[in-house]
Amino acid sequence: MRAPAFGFELLASDGAARRGRVTTAHGSFETPAFMPVGTAGTVKGLTPEQVAATGAEIILGNTYHLMLRPGAERVARLGGLHRFMNWPGPILTDSGGFQVMSLAELRKITDEGVTFKSHIDGSRHELTPERAVEIQRLLDADITMVLDECTPFPVERDAAAKSMALSMRWAERSKTAFQVRPGYGLFGIVQGSVFEDLREQSAAALTGIGFDGYAVGGLAVGEGQATTVRVLDATVPALPEDRPRYLMGVGKPGDMVPAVRRGIDMFDCVLPTRSGRTGQAFTRRAALNLRNARHQDDPRPLDPDCACPTCRDYARAYLHHLFKAGEMLGPILLTIHNLSYYQELMAGLRRAIEAGALEAFTAAFERRLAEGDLPAL
Prior knowledge:
CATH topology of the largest domain: TIM Barrel
Largest sheet: 8 strands, parallel, barrel
Shape: globular
CATH architecture of the largest domain: Alpha-Beta Barrel
Number of strands: 16
Helix content: 40-55%
Strand order of the largest sheet: 4-5-6-10-11-12-13-14
CATH superfamily of the largest domain: Queuine tRNA-ribosyltransferase-like
Strand content: 15-25%
């Protein structure tokens, strides 16, 4: 069967917020969308069926980790990442740019690309824009990201400008290297740190090259929510309205809602899964630490308004016990809940935008968070 064309359909809007649908070679997904992170070909702790049951329609894989282990060529020989990890739906792969930043002690950047030592065995590797795109093609990613340098924070303006210019040169080379196929898309990444004029220059450069979607990178690295919002206010209006917009590495529920209001369509973050493994649950009213003794006699669910299996079938007291006892079921159940909550938040945003009720939705969301967790019975 011939794959459909890659595309973005705008279905509704409410102010700057958008309700849309992205079509890929492996199916479509609704936006606003949250992508669970499957770094090494797995969303940690859950089967693909469990991930899908939370409402997730697209997941993220990591180019850096998969190129090192098990290797992109091996994944390709085994039928691609969808078959390899048994995820039939869309997959977005990041380019490895974030690891270029986070592994500063192990890498060297030149105009050609980045050379680095593997954090696994110390072996030497080179990642160029062309190789990053090739790896993602071998993985069979529906959405490929250009190679970029994720500018560290804090940073001086001159250094941010130099970094952004390098990322734009790499973006152009990534576009040239990308093999156009039905259902597959290539996203550019806006850089420029916290400097609004650099962000605008970056957006203009990328739209001049032309991409299937546009990401905002280099945020959620310690700059604070007020600065993130200011940068989005300067950046998002400079991006094409007929392409999906992706805010990389964000984040907390309280960060995603303001971003949606500014026209962001896609998110990813390790937070719901990582927090689930360490005993933190996100609910409509508060983030809860299930290791705290106050939960040990509490018969209530994590969130009485949540329909996920964890909230339906297990009490806070039992979840507390699992973490105190070091039982692996605790992280599994909290990961299921956290991803379910994130997906329900996205679904609620989609419904609100469709109904033209985003202001009311946002007000109710913020009010519950301000009220905090309900007192024990």
